């Protein structure tokens, strides 16, 4: 059973920052595209950012310039640095590892942006 372990969520004020982490097994991390998704209250799950094994990245328009996805090969971990957070960023954030062979999801971590 492949397990993606997420951490770093919490409560933050508007304009604040958080960094999410997702640790994956080395067999997955080295070969899969890693991505962060989110699902806000009453909304569908949406792609936030993705990164390939070659560190090519893509972002949702709503987070460009505020969020940065990165990967640390030595730690088999992908990060999502979130700056200038807005109330509309409030959601459960999920880590996903995907390839032609299939996809795996983390359990999700709650991010709440509120004053």
**Biggest pleated-sheet summary:** 7 strands, mixed
- In whole angstroms, the N-to-C terminal distance is 39 Å
- The percent range for helix content is under 10%
- Residue stretches low in confidence (pLDDT < 50, at least 5 long) are none
The SSE order reads EEEHEEEEEEEE
Total number of β-strand segments? 11
Total helices: the number is 1
CA-based shape: globular
Described by its quaternary structure, the protein is single chain
Strand content: over 45%
Helix/strand/pairing category: mainly beta
The residue-averaged pLDDT reads 95
Task: Report the C-alpha radius of gyration, rounded.
Answer: 13 Å
Give a verbal description of the structure:
With 115 residues, the chain is mostly beta strands. It has one helix spanning 26-29; strands at residues 5-7, 10-12, 18-23, 33-39, 46-51, 57-59, 67-72, 77-82, 91-99, 102-105, 109-113. The strands form two sheets. Strands 2, 4, 5, 6, 9, 10 and 11 form a seven-stranded mixed sheet that branches. Strands 1-3-8-7 form a four-stranded antiparallel sheet, with no helix packed on it. A hairpin with a 2-residue loop joins strand 9 (91-99) and strand 10 (102-105). The longest helix is centred in the N-terminal third of the chain and has 4 residues, at 26-29. The mean pLDDT is 95.
């Amino acid at each position: 059973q492949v397990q993606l372990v997420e951490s770093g969520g919490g409560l933050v004020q508007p304009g604040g920052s958080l960094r999410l982490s997702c640790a994956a097994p080395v067999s997955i991390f080295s070969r899969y595209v890693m991505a962060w998704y989110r699902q806000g209250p009453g909304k569908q799950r949406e792609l936030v950012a993705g990164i390939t094994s070659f560190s090519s990245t893509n972002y949702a328009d709503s987070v460009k310039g505020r969020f940065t996805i990165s990967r640390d090969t030595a730690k088999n971990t992908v990060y999502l640095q979130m700056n200038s957070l807005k109330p509309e960023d409030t959601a459960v954030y999920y880590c996903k590892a995907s390839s032609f062979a299939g996809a795996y999801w983390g359990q999700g971590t709650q991010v709440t942006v509120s004053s």
